[in-house]
Amino acid sequence: MRDLDVLIVGAGAAGLMCAIEAAKRGRRVLVIDHARKAAEKIRISGGGRCNFTNLHCTPANYLSQNPRFCVSALKRYTQQDFLQMVERHRIPWHEKTLGQLFCDDSAQNIIDMLLDELSKAGGKLQLETSVSALEKADSGFQVKTNHEQLRAKAVVIATGGPSIPKMGASGFGYDVARQFGLDIVPPRAALVPLTFSDTNKDLCKRLAGVSVDALVSFGKTSFREGLLFTHRGLSGPSILQISSYWQEGKPITVDLSPTQDAFEAFRTARTESPKQDLKTVLGQLLPNRLADELSKEFGLKGRLADLSDKVLRRAGEAINRWQLTPVGTEGYRTAEVTLGGVNTKELSSKTFEASKVPGLYFIGEVVDVTGHLGGFNFQWAWSSGHACGQAV
Ligand code: FDA
User: Fold this and answer.
1) What is the set of domains in the chain, with CATH numbers?
2) pTM over 0.95
3) ipTM over cut 0.90
């Protein structure tokens, strides 16, 4: 039986950060992961360049049943703190847009940095290892893995959410929470493309590959970023962002011309060149393929001089306030993150320890804290991992 101070399950972003900090404090730390390689999600993130944080990270960038839960950890380990580690390791990086920081070369740089820090701090990593039993003992926990029996004073669950199962994602964290009677906010796929049926699906299919700058809204929440038509529906950053807020059965609103009021543009064109066709003016506001298809779909055509304000207003609404109701999302297969998870009311926001189960901790994506697109989810993994590593 091996004795440990801290057993961390999950060698992803949060688990590795926690292991580094705990090992630096002299704890005997073992991180285990059932995958063959550590941190596979870091490797594929940001198109292979890892959007590792965001310069403008604040608690407002996170969704949770308790929006204040993330404040303490984000304040104690900030985006600048992580950036300092990146710079100390001389990893070249750049800001892409909206404060999003990416590696210049490869996401592997971030993984190598974390593994290097872990090994220097004296923490151990064991891959292809999974937990078959986890029981509370007199002081700490007894853990059975596929290799051995372990005794650990503290166990940290850092197994992430179930998105992208083929990358090793699992619902293990939720199973452990249930085993110890902790509440779970129902999880669902987020930062995920939206799917449509019938005419909207056909329209999206015909437009597959077209992208446009759009303002996409659900209720009072809006995101202005790229929108991409796909064979199944809509994707692109603005759609992924709104997917975290969208509720089933309700429409989203898409403004395809966020810098221009389309109705005003049509009216001005009618005064200046009344013989022009509405479709031609549409082509000045939108990419040609999109203008063509929307003109067919919504009957947006005819000589401007012959069209009343009422008709032009309706045409403008179709462009600036297009309402469409998704039938669903592409689900965990392509979702970047999972909404919901271990209810924050069960955890200390300072240490991430479960109040009902002393010695048991949950960090990273497995917790009901989900960031916007743009480096915020990794920052949550770093901040929650760091806070827990200081306490465990
Ligand atoms: P993470 O999923 O990283 O790690 C969990 C670990 O636990 C994995 O190594 C897994 O193998 C292991 N595990 C799971 N079940 C286990 C079990 N039963 N036993 C043992 N081990 C187990 N975010 C961002 O900020 N910027 C970005 O650029 C991107 N890009 C991106 C692209 C894609 C395609 C995806 C899917 C996701 C992103 N994300 C992102 C989100 C980001 O990857 C995610 O929020 C973090 O990886 C979460 O970190 P965790 O450490 O909590 O889980």
Assistant:
1) 2-188+338-389 (3.50.50.60), 193-329 (2.40.30.10)
2) yes
3) yes
